Amino acid sequence: MSDLPKRVHFHEEGPREGFQIERETFPLAQRAALVNALSETGLEEIQVASFVSPKAVPQMADAEALFEAVKRKPGVRYDSVWLNERGFERARACPGVHVTGRIALYASDAFALRNNNCTAAEMRSRVNGWLDRYAEVGVPMERALVMAAFGCNFEGEVPPARAITELVWADRACRERGFTLPRVYLADTMGWANPQSVRRLVGMLREALPEAEVGLHLHDTRGLGAANVLAALEMGVSHFDSSVAGLGGCPFAGHGEAKGAGNICTEDMVFLCHEMGIETGIDLDALVEAARLAESIIGRTLSGRLMHAGTLAHYRDRQATARSS
Amino acid sequence: MSDLPKRVHFHEEGPREGFQIERETFPLAQRAALVNALSETGLEEIQVASFVSPKAVPQMADAEALFEAVKRKPGVRYDSVWLNERGFERARACPGVHVTGRIALYASDAFALRNNNCTAAEMRSRVNGWLDRYAEVGVPMERALVMAAFGCNFEGEVPPARAITELVWADRACRERGFTLPRVYLADTMGWANPQSVRRLVGMLREALPEAEVGLHLHDTRGLGAANVLAALEMGVSHFDSSVAGLGGCPFAGHGEAKGAGNICTEDMVFLCHEMGIETGIDLDALVEAARLAESIIGRTLSGRLMHAGTLAHYRDRQATARSS
Fold first, then answer.
1. Are B223 and A254 within 8 A, CB to CB?
2. Do A306 and B227 touch (CB under 8 A)?
3. Ramachandran class of A104: left when φ > 0, alpha when ψ lies in -120 to 50, beta otherwise
4. What's this model's pTM, rounded to 2 decimal places?
5. How far apart are CA B42 and CA B294, in angstroms?
6. Contacting residues of B for A312, CB less than 8 Å apart
């Protein structure tokens, strides 16, 4: 366990993931209240909304109003998702949005075709367009992410080299424009990762891009989320995307439907880190309260475990008090 | 990962755990159907019911009738739980019940008092009585388990030595009667374990009792179940108690209520083993079907993940077919 990172950073995607997947649109005040609660937990990055077509995603039509309603906490970065120039312009024009350069690539052609109606190679040329655009407006690069890095429901097993190749390409494309690419993410978009494949890909990525920080975007689709995070922590991985309360989980218990299975649960994974002596800068009890708020807003039991069982803090406090008295 | 076991054994506790925790009593035919489905998965041990007071646990009042209704598969051991002489006699008298010597001890006095109205030391003397009884009737010893081995909601942190001391005592008590104690179990009764404490206790237990096989009884109370299983697998642990579909989880999303949080989910952990190349002897697709049957009987979404997402088998098959054609 000697490679454990001293500190782990969680990129909170719950508000965007969670409210985007639901059929109903929740009151803006409730969505703002969740972001405000998350702002008080010590989280450094919170993904608030998507700037996408109101026709395609009516739940996110009021992204600007939501950002305006959020009480912004100094030191917290509030970010967003965009998929086209119109969305990028909305994000840049919206006060309070932390706009950084993000690019996404595909390790699976079948998934790229299904999700973006293009091949993985065609996605690269689209990414070239984004890199030029970011250079043009002076937006600093933050991350490149490769989807379906561990496997694909539409293609099957994906050779590890595929994800590495895409991220090495992204790194070179950034360098050609005088950027550095600080972080590279492996995304287990459809829940194919296991502790061994996590170790293998993280190891290969470190060898290929020794200067970049490695991050993971994991879903708990098949119950291996916590095991995959442990394997990554033991490889020294210190950046994870996650969702408070497990927000983003599919609201329909449709069997055989990996679609919409949630990100790993932020507070459960923060608990894992803290129990192993790894710092996160997060107030776990405050985060559990935010998770309970998320559950009360959504109105059904969400997949996070810790928020239902409670943390161990008060048991330990009671024990300490008993000993000292 | 060199210490991974070649084969892992799962002791299925879902039928007993799951139907015992529910307020309603489910039709005997449905409970028998679940056991019958589990019998066809390759599981070697299935805990069918408890022989306990019908007043205290009306859901288990018809344990004998349930055993009679079960279609017993050769090679599968169908076991049960008893807490007193009356229950033990019922189990011994009931056709089809695999009766072996099991003893339970406490690493926490506070939990022993709460759960058994006795101290951990008093529990030992009760256990002496059971060992004499097992010797008297010639029931072979199978396992000793120590509850609250990793921590306790009523006592707080529990020093690792406490659990080890209890199991070393149990081993000696067995030897004094000419028994050997084949398996010793650490139970994380209230969800305090983390990967580091799992490694620590398993290591200490191996040193203390090098001849016994180590087993784990883990609950996924706070979301670390899969991570704790991974840590145990990397220590070579090859015996786990678990529940199909995560049966046994608390049906009420009561915050701060660790009570009733489910065992680790059998099919999710079998999936973990198989993805890491560890044999279980289990047909995962058949087990997922059994999990879906369990969920349909209980009538609400259960915590198992794999049964909702589906296994990876058909994606791989489709890929193999595409390649060969």
1. no
2. no
3. beta
4. 0.96
5. 17
6. 151, 192, 222
Give the separation between CA A38 and CA A72, rounded to whole angstroms. 11
Whether residue B275 and residue A225 make contact (CB cut-off 8 A), yes or no, is: no
DSSP symbols for A63-131: HHHHHHHS-PPTT-EEEEEE-SHHHHHHHHHSTT----EEEEEES-HHHHHHHHSS-HHHHHHHHHHHH
So what's the pLDDT on residue A46?
98
Pick from A257, A225, A201: which is nearest to B272 by CA?
A225
- Mean of pLDDT values over B17-36: 92
One-letter amino acid for residue A264 of the chain:
I
> Could you confirm whether B250 is annotated as catalytic?
yes
Predicted local distance difference test score (pLDDT) of residue A232:
98
Residue A71 CA from chain centroid, whole number: 22
Instruction: Express as a percent the part of chain B with pLDDT over 90.
Output: 86
- Give A91 or B18, the one with higher predicted confidence: A91
User: Are residues B78 and B98 in contact, defined by beta-carbon separation less than 8 angstroms?
Assistant: yes
Closest CA to B217 of B116, B158, B148, B140: B148
Question: What are A132-163's pLDDT values in tens digits?
Answer: 999 999 999 999 999 999 999 999 999 999 99
CA distance B153 to B155: 6
**HSE-CB of B291 using CA atoms within 13 angstroms:** 33
This model of the complex carries an ipTM of 0.96
Q: Please tell me the distance from the alpha carbon of residue A18 to that of residue A248, in angstroms, as a whole number.
A: 4
**Do residues B111 and B163 make contact, with C-beta atoms less than 8 angstroms apart?**
no
A253-265, pLDDT tens digit by residue?
344 444 457 899 9
CB A184 within 8 A of CB A167: yes
Q: Name the residue in chain B with its Cα closest to that of A321.
A: B156
Per-residue model confidence (pLDDT) at position A21 = 85
Q: Helices marked H in chain B — which ranges?
A: 14-21, 28-39, 63-69, 85-93, 109-116, 120-137, 160-176, 195-208, 225-234, 266-275, 284-298, 306-309, 313-324
Averaged over A192-207, what is the pLDDT?
A: 98
Q: Using CA coordinates, name the residue in chain B closest to A220.
A: B305
Record: contact B308-A254, CB cut-off 8 A? yes
Distance CA B312, CA A188 (A): 14
Question: What is the per-residue pLDDT for B252?
Answer: 45
Q: How far apart are CA B240 and CA A309, in angstroms?
A: 22
Query: Hey, of B189, B197, B230, which one would you mutate to test binding to chain A, going by the most A CBs within 10 A of its CB?
Result: B230
Predicted local distance difference test score (pLDDT) of residue B23? 83
Identity of the amino acid at A107: A
* pLDDT tens profile B215-248: 999 999 999 999 999 999 999 999 999 999 999 8
What are the tens digits of pLDDT across the range A48-72? 999 999 998 999 999 999 999 999 9
Domains of chain B plus CATH, in order, are: 1-99+243-257+267-325 (3.20.20.70), 107-119+130-238 (3.20.20.70)
Give whole-number Cα distances, B313 to A13, A162, B309, in Å. 30, 21, 12
Rounded Cα gap, residues B267 and B286, in angstroms: 10
Alpha-carbon span B18 to B31, nearest angstrom: 10
Q: Which two tokens stand for residue B150?
A: 């990793």
**B195 chain-A contacts, CB cut-off 8 A:** 1, 230, 272, 276
Q: Which residues of B275-307 are buried (b: 16+ CB within 10 A; e: fewer)?
A: bbebebebebebbbbbbbbbbebbeebbbbbbb
Q: Which residues of B touch A271 (CB under 8 A)?
A: 222-224
CB-nearest to A221 from B194, B258, B305 is B305
Contact A261 B315 (CB under 8 A): no
